[in-house]
Design brief:
Peptidase A1 domain-containing protein, signal, mainly beta, Xylanase_inhibitor_I-like, 35% strand, Cathepsin D, subunit A, domain 1, 2 domains, five-stranded antiparallel sheet, TAXi_N
Length: 435
């Protein structure tokens, strides 16, 4: 997937590196791995006293670090957030706890701060919702030195997170995962808390790898440097959804929405109901970016329009495969590979003149067999729970792209697809952290 500023723009090989000459330029890097069975993106941190490794699923729009505090959570530094504290206000509480509901350390604290949470990975029943206890504990992140290759760690002694029961994390997560790494726009999500703890700029860069063989993707918190002679990021504003349909009692969503105004296939505008691309009075509609959805989800009428336009633009030699063998996809083909230049391009067009995000074959098609590929988009009506957003840009479509989320300037920056330049996110896995 690539975002273009005009058809004449050409982007070269990305050179991304952390400044080692200016102490004010600081960053932290978390390696990211794609799980082969769930297609989730996972990372890990260290937490508690004594420190233990905690494996997390990356949730781009998540409003906090969300952890299973019921099964095996032992820490001498755990502390419940009080209802009247500043941390509770930042966590957007829904109620005060005044009793003990389990035999574990959480939910047993007087005047504890409670928030409401929604699990995007568990959408089959009301078990998607729960109340969580806001808490504080030590968070530690290993850092790598570029000069010595050694590894140390930095810690935040009172990192705020949300405690949930084991059943809420559920069985839909990758093996060994104990929580969600929320990267959303809330004040207690990882980007803001790490920025405050280490005086970072309030932004982060995300590069997800399509490889499932190793930790070859990265999240870079704070400042970093892009060689502008090699790559120019194109920016579009982050839109604020005034109503969150997910979090009970939270009126403003922590997700990342962008202003797509139309869709093109091979440069031809797709006829669709464009009112679906804006928010309605209940916060439904619009376009958001997600890392917990493996593929882009489209509202049913938008999906049908894009699918028909895509099929029309395929070469005559390409044949359809019926029934489509690649669930959850609705249309598959024989006779064309995802890397072929004949794969029709798909553009997400933004309001600013000549600015669009181009999805090339590597990001629009999914190989499901030796000679069968599928359009890597999902019809929203085929999901257990219909998404509130009309377009949810999923993981496959943003893989091997560099995305910068600048919360201070409220904008998202996009690179061209790295696969077009014979490179991947794995090239940036060896970058060093500086604090």
């Amino acid at each position: 997937m690539a975002l273009h500023y005009g058809s004449s723009s050409a982007f070269l090989l990305l050179l991304l590196f952390i400044s080692s000459r200016c102490a004010a330029k600081t960053s932290l890097i978390l390696p990211v791995t794609k799980d082969s069975s769930t297609l989730q993106y996972t990372t890990h941190v260290y937490q508690r006293t004594p420190l233990v490794p905690v494996k997390l699923t990356v949730d781009l729009g998540g409003n906090s670090l969300l952890l299973d505090c019921e099964e095996g959570y032992v820490s001498s530094s755990y502390k419940s957030v009080n209802c009247k504290s500043a941390h509770c206000v930042l966590a957007k509480p829904t109620s005060c706890g005044d009793g003990c509901y389990t035999h574990t350390l959480w939910y047993c604290n007087k005047k504890a701060c409670f928030t409401s949470q929604y699990n995007l990975l568990n959408q089959t029943s009301l078990l998607s919702y729960t109340f969580a206890e806001a808490a504080e504990d030590v968070l530690s992140i290993p850092i790598r030195s570029g000069s010595t290759g050694g590894e140390t760690a930095v810690s935040v002694p009172r990192f705020v997170f949300n405690c949930v029961p084991t059943w809420f994390i559920g069985n839909a997560v990758a093996r060994g995962v104990k929580g969600m790494a929320g990267l959303g726009r809330s004040y207690i999500a990882l980007p803001t808390q790490l920025a405050q703890a280490f005086s970072f700029p309030r932004k982060f860069a995300l590069c997800l790898s399509s490889s499932t063989k190793e930790a070859s993707g990265v999240i870079v918190f704070g400042d970093y440097r892009v060689d502008r002679s090699k790559l120019s990021l194109i920016y579009t504003p982050i839109l604020t959804n005034p109503r969150s349909s997910k979090y009970i009692g939270q009126r403003e969503s922590s997700e990342y929405f962008i202003g797509v105004k139309s869709i093109r296939v091979n440069g031809k505008k797709v006829p669709l109901n464009t009112t679906l691309l804006s928010f309605d009075d209940e916060g439904n509609g619009g376009t958001r970016i997600s890392t917990v959805n493996p593929y882009t989800i489209l509202e049913s009428s938008i999906y049908e329009a894009v699918k028909e336009a895509f099929v029309r633009e395929l070469p005559a030699s390409v044949t359809g495969v019926t029934p489509p063998p690649g669930a959850p996809f609705g249309v598959c083909f024989r006779g064309i590979h995802s890397s072929s230049r004949e794969v029709p391009s798909i553009d997400l067009v933004f309001p600013r003149k000549n600015v669009y995000w181009r999805i090339h074959g590597a990001n629009s098609m999914v190989q499901v067999g030796k000679d069968v590929t599928c359009l890597g988009f999902v019809d929203g009506r085929n999901l257990p729970l219909l998404p509130a957003s009309s377009v949810v840009i999923g993981g496959h479509q943003i893989e091997d792209n560099l995305l910068e989320f600048d919360l201070q300037r409220s904008r998202v920056g996009f690179s061209s697809s790295l696969s077009l330049h014979q490179t991947t996110c794995a090239h940036f896995h060896s970058m060093s952290s500086r604090v």
